[in-house]
UniProtKB/TrEMBL annotation:
<comment type="similarity">
    <text>Belongs to the complex I subunit 2 family.</text>
</comment>
<comment type="subunit">
    <text>NDH-1 is composed of 14 different subunits. Subunits NuoA, H, J, K, L, M, N constitute the membrane sector of the complex.</text>
</comment>
<dbReference type="InterPro" id="IPR010096">
    <property type="entry name" value="NADH-Q_OxRdtase_suN/2"/>
</dbReference>
<keyword id="KW-0472">Membrane</keyword>
<dbReference type="InterPro" id="IPR001750">
    <property type="entry name" value="ND/Mrp_TM"/>
</dbReference>
<feature type="domain" description="NADH:quinone oxidoreductase/Mrp antiporter transmembrane">
    <location>
        <begin position="154"/>
        <end position="459"/>
    </location>
</feature>
<feature type="transmembrane region" description="Helical">
    <location>
        <begin position="232"/>
        <end position="259"/>
    </location>
</feature>
<feature type="transmembrane region" description="Helical">
    <location>
        <begin position="301"/>
        <end position="323"/>
    </location>
</feature>
<protein>
    <recommendedName>
        <fullName>NADH-quinone oxidoreductase subunit N</fullName>
        <ecNumber>7.1.1.-</ecNumber>
    </recommendedName>
</protein>
<feature type="transmembrane region" description="Helical">
    <location>
        <begin position="137"/>
        <end position="154"/>
    </location>
</feature>
<dbReference type="Pfam" id="PF00361">
    <property type="entry name" value="Proton_antipo_M"/>
</dbReference>
<comment type="function">
    <text>NDH-1 shuttles electrons from NADH, via FMN and iron-sulfur (Fe-S) centers, to quinones in the respiratory chain. The immediate electron acceptor for the enzyme in this species is believed to be a menaquinone. Couples the redox reaction to proton translocation (for every two electrons transferred, four hydrogen ions are translocated across the cytoplasmic membrane), and thus conserves the redox energy in a proton gradient.</text>
</comment>
<feature type="transmembrane region" description="Helical">
    <location>
        <begin position="189"/>
        <end position="212"/>
    </location>
</feature>
<feature type="transmembrane region" description="Helical">
    <location>
        <begin position="335"/>
        <end position="356"/>
    </location>
</feature>
<feature type="transmembrane region" description="Helical">
    <location>
        <begin position="63"/>
        <end position="82"/>
    </location>
</feature>
<keyword id="KW-0874">Quinone</keyword>
<feature type="transmembrane region" description="Helical">
    <location>
        <begin position="271"/>
        <end position="295"/>
    </location>
</feature>
Length: 543
């Protein structure tokens, strides 16, 4: 039985329905698919790869790698329409200024670094995929890249933490993907445990900040911390420090760096390269967002903390790298791991300077410029290490002795990458990037940090130049020939064996690996010739 609605009841019902429809309409937002494309495309391709792996026969699995490379290239092209840097989406209906995703200039530059790093990692991986399950490998790599691309665009703490975990969780599995390898399993376990501890500390800090401000959006947090209630001030400051400590774990900043050397050595070499560049880029972008935007009112709290972390990180990394010597057959990958920790210290310096600057957005541009230089040349160094590992799986520093005699172009490329990292000509971009970082702290931040950086740059010169000189030294086999000739007939057999070893032709280099070395070398040369391509970020406000 239906009851007809008449008169004022009908009008009231109509008005209520209209109000309800307006309320529902205000909650429905259109998604800016162009803005989120650089993060969405790798995620979509990851699902395609995972499903395709179920149907492709074993001999066709190589196609998954090319699909991954094509997907990452497409994600890179999707950055083109975002160059203006003024797109936002997932905004609050009550306040259009509070958005969870922003594609500004900072986001676009970091996404370019992330996608480029992931693409080069895929090229490094192509030649050695018979050792790993292809579907899982490419799915995990694309998933991690999607999280890393989302992180610099995150503008609230919830999205920031989720993006950080999406970046990190697949990386655990990638580190331990060498099934049956004890070192790989141990590396994955150390990485997992340290990351879980970091996540717990970060979430505790985020909860404290939310309790004090009542919001998770970064810009609103800054407003809330500027006018926080007196009884909640201590809680807010503790929350800010805990959040910073959590990110310090993720960044491998000293004293939270202990997992890095073993993880890099135990992981597949392309994944070690990925962690050293893309993992760091994601972590640093998150640290920049929470310090410069969310915790700006507490610059007096996080500024000294980041300055101390920078000094400790660069010192621990460079001193430990200095101990890796060819005479003791130390691992080249372990040296690169310690080097990456030292470089992380340099990247922290402009962030610390931002706390003391009246214009912190300009300071973080220096970190971005340095990160772009570091990404190109460090990936190149790992690419050469992957090439050497084809004939010397232990990848010891002694395996690089006389590399110029057998592979002159490869040796020259590695020498160029090492000189860029050291900041010496012809690695002009490395020199200019270090000068930009040094300038960011001089006259702005604490003078003692500038002194510590100068000392560490000198320390780093020693091990970078020592490795460079090793490339052009006389090969060990030739030394054996010379020694046999000098000692006479007693060592003739050893001399002959050495002579035979010298004559062994170099193995053929796979095309993707050659492309990775060539691309990074060209990038380093171009940046050294036209350093303003990245150094312009050091003088501009990206956020």
């Amino acid at each position: 039985m239906s009851i007809p609605v008449t008169g004022s009841h009908a009008a009231s019902s109509h008005a209520t329905g209209t109000l309800a429809a307006d309320a529902v309409g205000s909650l429905v937002q259109s998604v800016d698919w162009i803005a989120i494309a650089p993060a969405a495309i790798p995620a979509a391709v990851a699902l395609v790869v995972l499903v395709a792996d179920l149907f492709l026969p074993k001999e066709k699995k190589a196609l998954l790698g090319w699909v991954t490379i094509a997907g990452l290239a497409l994600a890179g092209l999707a950055l083109g329409p975002l160059r203006a840097g003024h797109r936002k989406t997932f905004c609050l209906t009550t306040d259009a200024g509070d958005c969870s995703y922003a594609a500004d200039h900072f986001t676009v530059v970091i996404q370019l670094l992330v996608i480029g790093g992931a693409l080069l990692t895929a090229l490094l991986s192509m030649h050695d995929m018979e050792k790993y399950p292809a579907g899982e490998y490419w799915f995990l790599l694309l998933s991690s890249a999607a999280g890393a691309a989302l992180l610099p665009a995150s503008r609230d703490l919830a999205t920031l933490v989720v993006a950080l975990e999406v970046t990190t969780l697949p990386a655990f599995a990638l580190v331990g993907i060498k099934r049956g390898d004890r070192l790989s399993s141990e590396a994955a376990l150390k990485f997992f445990l340290s990351s879980v501890a970091a996540t717990a500390v970060t979430l505790l800090g985020v909860s404290f900040v939310y309790a004090a401000t009542g919001t998770l959006h970064l810009a609103s947090i800054a407003d809330g911390l500027g006018d926080v209630q007196p009884q909640l001030a201590t809680l807010a400051k503790v929350g800010a420090v805990l959040t910073l400590v959590g990110f310090a774990f993720k960044l491998a900043a000293a004293p939270f760096h202990f997992w890095v050397p073993d993880t890099y050595v135990g992981a597949p070499l392309p994944i070690a390269a990925y962690l050293s560049v893309v993992g760091k880029a994601a972590g640093f972008s998150g640290l920049i967002l929470i310090t410069v935007i969310a915790f700006e009112p507490y610059a007096d709290v996080w500024g000294p903390v980041v300055a101390v972390l920078a000094a400790l990180t660069m010192t621990v990394g460079n001193v430990a790298a200095l101990r890796q010597r060819a005479g003791f057959a130390h691992s080249a990958v372990r040296l690169l791991a310690w080097s990456s920790i030292g470089q992380a210290g340099y990247l922290l310096v402009p962030i610390a300077a931002a706390a003391y600057s009246d214009d912190p957005e300009h300071q973080i541009g220096t970190t971005v410029a340095y990160a772009l230089m570091y990404a190109a040349v460090n990936l190149g160094a790992f690419a050469v290490a992957a090439l050497v590992a084809r004939t010397a799986p232990a990848n010891r520093l002694t395996d690089y002795r006389g590399l110029y005699a057998s592979r002159p172009l490869t040796a020259l490329a590695l020498a160029f990458f090492l000189l860029c990292l050291a900041g010496l000509p012809p690695g002009v971009i490395g020199l200019f990037a270090k000068v930009a970082v040094f300038s960011s702290i001089v006259g702005t931040g604490p003078a003692w940090l500038a002194v510590v950086m100068a000392v560490n740059v000198v320390i780093a010169l020693v091990y970078y130049l020592r490795w460079t000189a090793l490339l052009f030294a006389k090969p060990a086999a030739e030394q054996a020939v010379d020694a046999g000739a000098a000692e006479g007939s007693g060592t003739v057999s050893g001399a002959v064996a050495g002579a035979v070893a010298v004559g062994v032709p170099a193995t053929r280099v796979p095309a993707p690996l050659t492309a990775a070395i060539a691309l990074t070398a060209v990038a380093g040369i171009v940046l050294s010739g036209v350093p303003q391509l990245v150094l312009r970020y050091a003088s501009g406000a990206l956020l």
